[in-house]
Amino acid sequence: MHSVFKKVVNLKSDPQKPLLSLVVEEKAMGPNSLLADIDGFDSSLKTESPVVFSPPVLTINSFKFGISPIKDWTPPRTNYDFGSREFNNLLCWLNTTVPDLIEILSPSAEGLIEGLKKKDMLLLTSSLDELIGKGEGLTPSGDDFAAGVIAAYVRGNQEKDELASFLQKLQFLVEEKCSQTNAVSQTMLWYASRGEGALYITEVIDAVYSNSGNALRSAQYLFKIGASSGKYLLAGIVRGCKILLDGRIGNG
Fold it and tell me: For the chain, what are the domain ranges?
């Protein structure tokens, strides 16, 4: 067992692979998660404790709980029309709630955005060097922002065959730079480079790109995650979505 929190337990089965997570809320479900049928985890669980899984029961020391039926991860996707209505509503709320959060960025954050716009691997490399592992929080704020930008960018571009080579290079770069931060952030960034993540991340992205009417509600949920993680993830998602939406307006 790698780490224990009130609503998440992280397991490390292979040092070369992302963490596996036990979560107690469906919103936290993702491609690396199992849903535990309990209200939360308690302090009796200790890191480095052995874990035994005999479906559907998982045991950590003397602590036993049921796990939701295991099935292949099929991320919910909606049809994207890449309209700007939902994005503009979200932007208005965010600028009112946290003025300047997405407008005043560090040079490295701006470099990440410009690097994606220009598909400049050198700029992306130097920007990620300055972002990953830097900042406040369990998952440093630089990691959260980078994950949000990259997840939104990759998720919105996955159907574009002409970008397949660039997206693969980006994925390899993120994996290389992940060694600069902790295992929790490494897992978040690993999935972000594939356009994936917990539902509270992907629901915001999908809602913006599909104009579903759910963007603001999903964003408000994400905003409250952790002490600062949700705020910086959301800031990154907004800037990542903006790259695609501005590009479509410019090409329209």
Answer: 3-66, 85-251
